[in-house]
Write a structure and sequence with these properties.
There is one protein chain. By secondary structure, the protein is an alpha/beta fold. The protein has four domains: about 210 residues, Ribonuclease H-like superfamily/Ribonuclease H (Nucleotidyltransferase, domain 5), CATH 3.30.420.10; about 130 residues, Roll (CBS-domain); about 160 residues, Beta Polymerase, domain 2 (2-Layer Sandwich), CATH 3.30.460.10; about 140 residues, Four Helix Bundle (Hemerythrin (Met), subunit A). It contains 29 helices and 17 strands. The strands form five sheets. The chain has a five-stranded mixed sheet with strand order 3-2-1-4-5, with helices on both faces. A four-stranded mixed sheet has the order 14-13-12-15, with helices on both faces. The protein is globular. The two termini are about 55 Å apart.
Length: about 700
């Protein structure tokens, strides 16, 4: 797939951008000439001054004294400088497809266009932003919008003013400082920012009348993505791994190990740890060959522990294949262990098993979240998820597989945020803990309009005690990091930074009892979210223990099941008389009256029958053994779930390109006739959830 540097959906924090500025012989774009071009790169939301560009340009005409007085560049300074064509070629090669960020950008673009025409160079309008317009979005009442005023307002120190590079650095610093303020206003992506700046089209038009370039022309065009190989995004390691793994004792000889490799036709064996509870190691055929070359025949009798590499790198059996491909590539290894939810190695995976996958071209989402060292780096990876979703939808991959990929990366992002937040803490964790992802992320059903739903369970400690205070600080750091990376704060405050979602194991047990005992609508909603939890970091045994208790408690309370059933059936699909769609401003909410009754019903049945599967289709499939004569209803609900899910995702992809904030609201007018008929059928199936639950108002 060709690299797409800045799709419309890319978060501003991970924008591939550079700030630029020029110095000229005057301000009249019809006659002035450029004499200096400078730029600095913005990487992962930070200004990297080491990546800069600044060159003088010989304009071929005298520089007026009044211009020299401003920028200090004389005729003598540029007498030996290159002409514009040479500088432009160097700049374009350095710039690549980066978005240009400038101050009074229309002037600089007009100068670039004029100079290109004079030099006989091809020129097209680059994608660009003007910090004046961004500041106007946030603080329209500033006394003026000069660079110095803006810098003072945002708290940026300016240096080397009126040099191209100095002003470019000031512009870059301003842009980076604006990103969190724009995010607080709900402007997170490049497309959303461009859409917000459309209100300044009249100002751009007025500037164009004095010879500046109208930067509204510079919006990016949609890029048609090449299809990617969807296999790594549809299959999990459990589908490919060799099981059970081949594990040998540490003291067997290399001769014996070699015989095992030959007899079993494998390329590696795992080696027991030096002590109980330790991590397994690995010995590969390449390790043996290197040792034989080093010691010749003497190597045959050496113990395998001499060459074993500890610890064995591994991934979860539930991980997608693309994760294994990327992990091998990042770590420069050819073998991985496969572990279960308890961390026990249950399988082996080698590069041979993945041979049919093209690691360089097929995998857009890599292993970079686990290697990220900042929110900016996490955001850069997170921004790729949209491209993956778009490509997989184009390849007609089941939307539930796409949602599972998005959810996996959300869990990985939350885990990495925990790891980075722990590093920032002044002391280590006071006791074991687990970070949980709740709601759609826990079910594996996140689409692109997700927000944060997370919680912490820690081994011991009281609310407000030292343990709780430590985890409160951790929770705030994690939430802030996730928000910066592209996963917004939860509007309902279902986050570990909230004390209600940060409790000890015994505290969670008491809270669950309270929820079930009070049984008011707010508590039912909290239970809904919590029963979809999955542990993503730390001692996941604590997460499992909490959920085991929750399922036991919930399944034993008939009144709780009844109230949950009522809640699942309360929302009706947005269909009116004669099956017409009920619209609000041309759209309808497909969560409240579409997928919510489906996943709520599946959750109720899972609690009632203590089924620990998480996804809605898996829960419906598992319940078929518990409910007689309902196969057709279950099959129809599973298919309806897929259709509604697919419709929401396609709308989100369209909205991302248009810079429209993401939601679960769909515009049927943008669907084809066949898609509308299919969606109507799916919504007509939703009321059948009551057939699975019985009449919740009378009995279960």
């Amino acid at each position: 797939m060709a690299k797409q540097h800045n799709p419309a959906s890319i978060p501003l924090l991970s924008l591939d951008a550079l700030a630029f500025d020029s110095e000229t012989t005057g301000l009249d774009t019809s006659s002035a000439r450029m004499i200096q071009l400078g730029a600095v790169r913005i990487v992962h939301g930070e200004v990297d001054e080491t990546q800069n560009f600044q060159q003088l340009i010989n304009p071929g005409v005298p520089i007026p004294p009044e211009s020299q007085a401003i920028h200090g560049i004389s005729d003598a300074d540029v007498s030996e400088a290159s002409d514009f064509s040479e500088v432009a070629r160097a700049f374009d090669e350095w710039r690549q497809d980066s978005v240009l960020v400038g101050y009074a950008t229309g002037f600089d673009l007009a100068m670039l266009k004029r100079e290109s025409e004079i030099a006989g160079l091809e020129w097209s309008v680059p994608r660009c932003l003007d910090v004046r317009f961004l500041v106007n979005l946030l603080s329209p009442n500033l006394p003026d919008f000069s660079l110095d005023t803006i810098a003072g307002w945002i708290g940026v120190e300016t240096r080397n003013r009126h040099s191209a590079l100095g002003d470019a650095i000031a512009t870059a610093d301003i842009f980076v400082a604006l990103i969190p303020r724009l995010r607080a206003r709900g402007i997170r992506t490049l497309a959303e920012l461009e859409r917000a700046c459309e209100r300044f089209s009249e100002a751009s038009t007025r500037e164009a009348q004095i010879g500046w370039l109208d930067i509204q022309q510079a919006k990016g065009t949609r890029t048609t993505l090449a299809r990617i190989d969807s296999f790594p995004y549809r299959h999990r390691l459990r589908d490919l791994m060799n099981s059970p793994p081949l594990i040998v004792d540490r003291d067997i000889s290399l001769r014996e190990a070699l015989a095992i490799l030959i007899d079993r036709e494998v390329s590696s064996v795992y080696v027991h740890p030096a002590q109980a509870g330790g991590k397994l190691g690995i010995v590969t055929e390449r390790d043996l060959l290197r040792k034989f070359r080093e010691l010749d025949d003497a190597a045959f009798e050496r113990p395998v522990s001499d060459v074993a590499v500890y610890p064995l790198a591994s991934l979860s059996a539930d991980a997608f294949v693309y994760r294994a491909i990327a992990r091998m590539k990042r770590m420069h290894v050819r073998h991985l262990g496969v572990h279960d939810s308890h961390g026990e190695i249950i399988g082996a995976l080698s590069a041979r098993d993945l041979l049919r996958q093209r690691a360089d071209d097929a995998v857009l989402l890599g292993d970079d979240i686990d290697a990220a060292e900042s929110a900016g780096q996490m955001s850069a990876v997170w921004g790729k998820i949209v491209l993956v979703a778009k490509s997989l939808v184009a390849e007609e991959v089941d939307v539930r597989d796409v949602a599972a990929v998005i959810s996996r990366e959300l869990c990985a992002l939350t885990r990495q945020a925990c790891i980075l937040a722990e590093r920032e803490m002044s002391t280590p964790p006071p006791c074991p803990y687990a970070m949980l992802v709740l709601g759609s992320g826990g079910r594996g059903e996140s689409l692109l309009a997700m927000d944060q739903d997370n919680a912490i369970v820690f081994a011991e400690g009281e609310p407000g005690g030292p343990e709780d205070q430590w985890f409160a600080e951790l929770g705030h750091k994690v939430s802030d990091m996730l928000d910066a990376a592209g996963v917004p704060y939860c509007k309902g405050k279902v986050m570990a930074s909230n004390p209600d979602w940060r409790l000890s194991l015994s505290g969670w047990q008491e809270m669950l009892q309270t929820w079930l005992r009070r049984q008011n609508p707010e508590d039912i909603l909290k239970c809904d979210i919590f029963f979809d939890a999955v542990g993503v970091h730390g001692d996941t045994g604590l997460a499992d223990a909490t959920l085991d208790y929750a399922f036991k408690l919930g399944s034993e309370s008939k009144l709780f099941i009844k109230l949950m059933s009522i809640n699942a059936c309360k929302n009706s699909p947005p269909l009116g008389l004669f099956g017409r769609f009920k619209l609000d401003n041309g759209r309808m909410d497909l969560k409240m009256g579409g997928i919510m009754p489906l996943f709520s019903t599946a959750r109720v049945l899972a609690i009632k029958h203590r089924l620990r599967t998480r996804s809605t289709p898996a829960r419906f499939a598992a319940i078929s053994a518990e409910i007689d004569k309902m196969e057709t209803t279950l099959d129809n609900l599973i298919e309806a779930h897929r259709i509604i899910f697919h419709t929401i995702l396609e709308q989100q992809l369209l909205d991302l390109e248009a810079g429209i904030p993401l939601s679960n609201r769909v515009a049927p007018g943008q669907l084809s006739s066949a898609s509308r008929d299919q969606l109507k059928w799916a919504l007509e199936q939703v009321p059948n959830v009551s057939n699975l639950l019985g009449d919740p108002l009378s009995r279960i």
